[in-house]
Amino acid sequence: QVQLVESGGGLVQAGGSLRLSCAASGRTLSNYAMGWFRQAPGNEREFVATINWNFGSTYYADSVKGRFTISRDNTRNTVYLQMNSLKPEDTAVYFCAARSNAWGSSRYAKRYEYDYWGLGTQVTVSS
To answer: Which residues pair with 11 in a beta bridge?
Structure first.
């Protein structure tokens, strides 16, 4: 079992920045992929970014490419999502997810591809 706890959400003006954190516990994340998804009211949960824990390779949704950066700290067992140039349409609850048996890939963009989920953190971007 892997437990995931997100933090770092809040209210920010358009053009601003936030850094989300996802602290993992329960087991080592070797051979895992870690992802961020988001869900706005009335919308489906959508893929944002993912990183392969072992190799650090990353993959992003087109909507955030060039603005968001996913990274990980092996010593802290934590994944980060640095969000810059935020837009009102980035407003959503952001969820961290973990997938076992990632086998070197980071191209996991579907909800069903992940085994564990956090409870989410709210990000609100005002115009």
So the answer is: 124
DSSP string of 90-119, one letter each residue: G-EEEEEEEES--TT-----SGGG-SEE--
54-57 contacts at long range (C-beta below 8 A, 24 or more positions apart)? 54/30, 54/102, 54/104, 55/104, 55/106, 57/104, 57/105, 57/106
CB atoms within 10 A of CB 122: 12
Q: Does residue 14 contact residue 23 with C-beta atoms inside 8 Å? A: no
CB 42, CB 91: distance < 8 Å? no
pLDDT, tens only, 30-47: 889 999 999 999 999 999
> In which residue ranges of the chain is pLDDT below 70?
none
| Locus of tokens 């988001």 | 38
CA dist., res. 63 & res. 92, Å (int): 14
